[in-house]
Design brief:
ATP-binding; ATP hydrolysis activity; Rossmann fold; 2 domains; Nitric oxide reductase NorQ protein; alpha/beta; P-loop_NTPase; CbbQ/NirQ/NorQ/GpvN; elongated
């Protein structure tokens, strides 16, 4: 087993103005800090728009860590993370990918929606998620040891899991895990008001509508209304757009393309908002 050297002190936190706002709903901030101190990889689980990405950005800034964010997709391969040889100026040069940069420089590498990536990505991550904390680069012959300031975080939405896209237990059990959900009503109202500039009294009906529509998840709609969508709707209202138009554009339209479902959502919004 590798010996653990003393943890370096993180860079002084940036001024609070530079730290992305985040409203904690539990002990997730303290858990993140302890995971970083002990060099443990972190898995964030929760629905779309529940604050996972904002949380990571907040904690990276709070701890003074460089942040390397990767939005995973069907074509994302291990080479996209580690790097590849490219032709530059008539010469072939090696260019580090975001994961390799994070390991070399120290910092937080965040893979958003990890289950969307190709299967070979997990193979690359495994040596970084145990006591070895190494990144083998076969194409350059290097074996990089992650510095104490390196941390790996990944996220996914369990609601989108299926037989073809699932995080294997052998991978999932390599991470400390935090489950995210939408904020309690009063807390969500405060967050939306702060993000949008709309007063809390005007935000409350939008949050109540979103909470009502979330109960339809898995029935008429695949995913519940995210806090992000409520912020969009509130921002449009704050900019002067009539509330029904803002709700249609920022909440109902993003939820479905089915005419019948959309008509049903419109009726619910009319009944809820008046």
């Amino acid at each position: 087993m590798n010996m653990i050297s003393p943890l370096p002190v993180a860079a002084p936190p940036a001024d609070s103005v530079d730290i992305p706002a985040y409203s904690a709903s539990g002990n997730e901030c303290a858990l993140f800090e302890k995971a970083w101190e002990k060099r443990l990889p972190l898995l964030l689980k929760g629905p779309t728009g529940s604050g996972k990405t904002r949380f990571v950005a907040h904690m990276a800034a709070r701890l003074g860590l460089p942040l390397f964010t990767v939005a995973c997709h069907d074509d994302l391969s291990a080479a996209d993370l580690t790097g590849r040889h490219l032709l530059k100026g008539g010469e072939t040069v090696w260019v580090d990918g975001p994961l390799t940069r994070a390991v070399r420089e120290g910092g937080l590498c965040y893979l958003d929606e990890i289950v969307e990536a190709r299967k070979d990505v997990a193979v690359v991550l495994h040596p970084l998620t145990d006591d070895r904390r190494i990144l083998p680069l076969e194409r350059t012959g290097e074996l990089l040891s992650a510095p104490p300031s390196f941390m790996l975080a990944v996220s996914y939405n369990p609601g989108y899991q299926n037989l073809l896209k699932n995080l294997k237990p052998s991978t999932r059990q390599r991470f400390v895990s935090i489950t995210f959900d939408f904020l309690p009503r009063d807390q969500e109202i405060v967050v939306v008001a702060q993000e949008s500039g709309l007063d809390e009294g005007a935000v409350a009906p939008l949050v109540d509508l979103a909470r009502r529509l979330r109960s339809l998840k898995g029935q008429d709609i695949e995913e519940g209304v995210s806090t992000r969508l409520i912020v969009y709707a509130a921002s449009l209202v704050a900019a002067g757009l009539p509330r029904p138009e803002a709700v249609m554009a920022a909440i109902i339209e993003p939820l479905t393309d089915e005419p019948e479902v959309r008509a049903g959502l419109i009726e619910i919004s009319r009944a809820a908002l008046g």
